[in-house]
Amino acid sequence: MNKIDVKEFDSLLKSEKPVVCDFFATWCGPCRMLAPVLEKLEGEFEDRAQFVKVDIDENAELAVRYGIMSIPFVGVFKSGALVDKSIGFGTAEELKDFLTKNL
């Protein structure tokens, strides 16, 4: 999963392929637990969406833009808009259901 910044994120939102973004912080324990789960699921869903991650400490503008108050925050974006979100740590099965529903 590529770590990107605000400019790259905004550019990705213009593509036709949905974007799954993991908003995280390096100091966040649940974020570190979620990362390998998302990386595994990326392999299953990479044909349906592009997976990226954004450090909210380095890109606070995005946290403000999307009202992110708790992390980890996984957002699904289609046609440039946030269509659904998952907040907090989730099991692989819960996240797979979330992605299946939204992609």
Q: What is the gist of this entry?
A:
40% of the residues lie in helices and 26% in strands. The protein has four helices and five strands, in the order E-H-E-H-E-H-E-E-H. The protein has a five-stranded mixed beta sheet, with helices on both faces.
By CATH, the topology is: Glutaredoxin
Q: Which parts are unreliable, with pLDDT below 50 for 5 consecutive residues or more? A: none
What is the name of the CATH superfamily?
A: Glutaredoxin
Oligomer class: single chain
Q: Give the helices and strands as they follow along the chain.
A: EHEHEHEEH
Q: Number of helical segments?
A: 4
Total beta-strand segments: 5
Shape from CA axes? globular
Tag the structure with descriptive keywords.
103 residues; alpha/beta; Glutaredoxin; 5-stranded mixed sheet; 4 helices; globular
Q: What does this molecule look like?
A:
With 103 residues, the protein is of the alpha/beta class. The chain has a single domain (2-102), classed as 3-Layer(aba) Sandwich (Glutaredoxin). It contains 4 helices and 5 strands; from the N terminus they run βαβαβαββα. It has helices at 6-12, 29-45, 60-65, 92-102, and strands at residues 2-3, 19-24, 50-55, 73-78, 81-87. Strands 1-3-2-4-5 form a 5-stranded mixed beta sheet, with helices on both faces. A hairpin with a 2-residue loop joins strand 4 and strand 5 (81-87). The chain is globular and about 30 Å long. The two termini are 17 Å apart. 27% of the residues are buried. The mean pLDDT is 96.
